[in-house]
């Protein structure tokens, strides 16, 4: 892992998995608490809004996941890159803004998941008033330029199958019906505060859908994660299950619904996976993630200002 300042400075190795731990381990997961939510509808962010919330329903049997792909408009099949701006809006505008800022790390749950899984990626990191901020630094080739914005596009039908599966497994009302039009411009996000080891984190992430009980008691125990795989990919299920569990664990979700398709894109079966707690493998991954975060806080906290200007580091992580 190498911190790389945005200026032309010599990169420095910050942490290796063989280094001795510099923080208390094992890093135990504290209870997650939802402190805010937001809805992204038509490119506009609404804080403390459930306008984009969808409820879990079982999908129709033998659904054709290819259906509707040819009718998608360009806007519906594209997704704007999201940095820290949406999180800042939640922190500043939410009725629980004080709770959101009483933490040591603020970032997207997906970024922490990838750190814990040891994925190679580039991040932007800064440290201000005792809080570590992390966002993705996305390579330009991942995106398509449209004016001054960058968007991620559904480039192939199989990617569409996954989004269509999510649509078929959710409804705008608890009673159904399921379905609708795939639209990457609409997202429901939650902000969850929890302790991981000795660190207190604010993690923000998209929620595919929720159980109907969410209405009376909004909380992580009602989040439902949706995944889609082909029968041929099921051979790697133990490994995939660990990765899926990690994604749900960080936000506190306890249920994963997995759909299986054939090569023609027809839904053949669904299975429900419970997420009672981290596996042995994921315990090790959580420890590694906490070590990375501790190292960043220590390193960036020593040199957070440069002549009054807030520093931003470019961080490179490798396997």
Could you give a short description of this structure?
The chain has 319 residues and is α+β, with helices and mostly antiparallel strands. The protein has helices spanning 85-93, 97-101, 109-116, 157-168, 237-251, 280-302; strands at residues 2-5, 33-41, 44-47, 55-56, 78-80, 105-108, 121-128, 131-136, 144-146, 149-153, 170-171, 187-196, 199-206, 209-210, 223-230, 255-261, 267-274, 305-306, 309-310, 313-317. It is found in: Nucleus.
List the SSEs and their pairings.
Blueprint: E1 2-5, E2 33-41, E3 44-47, E4 55-56, E5 78-80, H1 85-93, H2 97-101, E6 105-108, H3 109-116, E7 121-128, E8 131-136, E9 144-146, E10 149-153, H4 157-168, E11 170-171, E12 187-196, E13 199-206, E14 209-210, E15 223-230, H5 237-251, E16 255-261, E17 267-274, H6 280-302, E18 305-306, E19 309-310, E20 313-317
Helix pairs in contact: 3-5, 3-6
- The low-confidence parts are 142-152
The biggest sheet, with number of strands, parallel, antiparallel or mixed sense and barrel status, is: 9 strands, mixed
Counted by DSSP, the helix tally is: 6
Please indicate the percent range of residues in DSSP E strands (runs of 2 or more). 25-35%
The helix fraction, in percent, is: 10-25%
The total count of strands amounts to: 20
Structural class: alpha+beta
Residue-averaged pLDDT, rounded?
85
Overall form: globular
> What is the straight-line distance between the termini?
9 Å
Strand order of the largest sheet: 1-20-7-8-6-13-12-2-3
Radius of gyration: 20 Å
Helices and strands, in order, run as EEEEEHHEHEEEEHEEEEEHEEHEEE
Enzyme class: hydrolase
GO molecular function: metal ion binding; mRNA 5'-diphosphatase activity; nuclease activity; nucleotide binding; RNA binding
Cofactor: a divalent metal cation
EC number: 3.6.1.-
């Amino acid at each position: 892992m190498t911190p790389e300042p945005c200026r032309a400075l010599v990169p420095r190795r910050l942490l290796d998995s063989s280094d001795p731990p510099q923080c208390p381990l094992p890093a135990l997961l504290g209870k997650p608490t939802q402190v805010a939510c937001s809805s992204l509808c038509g490119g506009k962010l609404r804080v403390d809004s459930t306008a984009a919330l969808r409820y879990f329903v079982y999908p129709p049997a033998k659904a054709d996941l290819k259906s509707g792909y040819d009718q998608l408009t360009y806007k519906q099949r594209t997704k704007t890159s999201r940095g820290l701006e949406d999180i800042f809006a939640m922190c500043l505008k939410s009725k629980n803004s004080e709770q959101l800022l009483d933490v040591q790390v603020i970032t997207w749950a997906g970024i922490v998941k990838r750190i814990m899984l040891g994925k190679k990626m580039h991040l932007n990191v800064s440290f201000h008033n005792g809080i570590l901020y992390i966002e993705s630094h996305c390579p330009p080739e991942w995106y398509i330029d449209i004016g001054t914005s960058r968007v991620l596009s559904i480039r192939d039908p199989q990617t569409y199958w996954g989004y269509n599966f999510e649509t078929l497994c959710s409804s705008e009302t608890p009673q159904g019906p399921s379905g609708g039009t795939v639209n990457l411009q609409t997202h429901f996000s939650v902000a969850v505060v929890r302790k991981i080891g000795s660190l207190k984190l604010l993690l923000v992430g998209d929620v595919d859908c929720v159980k109907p009980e969410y209405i009376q008691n909004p909380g992580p125990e009602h989040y439902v994660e949706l995944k889609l795989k082909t029968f041929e990919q099921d051979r790697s299920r133990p490994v995939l299950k660990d990765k899926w569990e990690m994604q749900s664990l960080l936000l506190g979700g306890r249920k994963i619904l997995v759909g299986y398709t054939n090569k023609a894109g027809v839904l053949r079966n669904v299975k429900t996976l419970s997420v009672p707690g981290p596996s042995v493998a994921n315990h090790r991954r959580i420890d590694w993630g906490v070590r990375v975060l501790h190292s960043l806080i220590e390193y960036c906290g020593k040199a957070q200002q440069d002549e009054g200007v807030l520093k931003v580091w470019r961080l490179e992580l490798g396997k």
